[in-house]
Amino acid sequence: MSIQLEALPHRHVLTLPAMPAAVRTARQTAEQALTEWGINPRHPTIGPALLILSELVTNSVRHAADLSPQLTVIYAAGEDTLAFAVHDRHPHQPALYAMVTDAASGGLATVMELTLGLGGTAVVRGDADGRGKSIWITLPL
After folding, report:
1. What are phi and psi of 107, to 5 degrees?
2. Residues 6+ apart with CB under 8 A from 102
3. How many Cβ atoms sit within 10 Å of the Cβ of residue 47?
4. Which helix (H) or strand (E) covers residue 16, if one does?
5. Around Cβ 109, how many Cβ atoms within 10 Å?
6. Are the C-beta atoms of residues 138 and 2 closer than 8 Å to each other?
7. pTM for this structure?
8. Angle, to 10 degrees, between the axis of helix 21-36 and the axis of helix 46-64?
9. Cα Rg for the chain, rounded, in angstroms?
10. Can you name the residues that pair with 70 across neighbouring β-strands?
11. How far apart are CA 70 and CA 78, in angstroms?
12. Which region holds residue 3: left if phi is over 0, alpha if psi is between -120 and 50, else beta?
């Protein structure tokens, strides 16, 4: 799935403290944005997408909060695409696709299993200064 994110007409950005409550806020914001954008909440991609988002925010809170007191969630959508990213300022960039072949469980392994099962893609994009990253998920609708 190759899509120019700049071409997606719907966008929303949310910055939150890297605390456990961020998970619920990020998910509720996603649900509200999807409704405003006219995306059916019963679409078969939406439930797994919200779980993926929750896992990514949870990972950021658990593993990056010491170096990144805030995290940013970016939401984007178009007619047939849903994309979102979770950004933090921790330098570690996980090897997402290694999670698929390893016997890993939980967190990123769940993210990758769901993303690939839906026909989506996952990409880690490092910050220019090397001190942070975004994990982007793109899913077909």
Report:
1. 25, -110
2. 109
3. 12
4. strand 10-17
5. 17
6. no
7. 0.92
8. 150
9. 14
10. 17
11. 27
12. beta
